[in-house]
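User: Second chain of the day. Same drill as before.
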Amino acid sequence: HFLLVSNMVRFARHLLRTAPRLLHTGFLREVRPPCPPVQAAFRQSRAAAGQSRGAADEVVEDIADFLEQACCVRLDVRTAEEFAGGSVPEAVNIPVGELPERFEELPRGAALAVFCAAGVRSRAAQHFLESKGFQAKDCINVAYVAAALRMLESERE
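Assistant: Same format as last time:
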């Protein structure tokens, strides 16, 4: 598992180096979740037009459902430097490269919402944690988790 995680980290670093170039060429598109009022209005307009929800909406709603669990730990597996640049509230930072040595710091029995910058490291971390008996969900990236938290907050109001 360590070899898999280290290869995934290497690939993620490569992706982070090349992402600006790929964004510029249009190969990748930047993911920015809409603010809740815009998202709600967009959903209503699509529903009125008989259109289905978008895949991103479904992913954010799925993440929100997972985050609503009573004992859900938000696990940011980005590097300490990336984490210092900002994350979601109450997130715990254990970089994916340190996870094999530090996974025992995580509470057993708690649901783990795992995320990173692009989704590559979080997927590797999810598989590793599941192999160790944890209930882990790949929540893809900080933007999706933040959108899910905003969605939950708007539903509470």
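DSSP finds seven helices and four strands in the chain.

User: Great, on to the next one.
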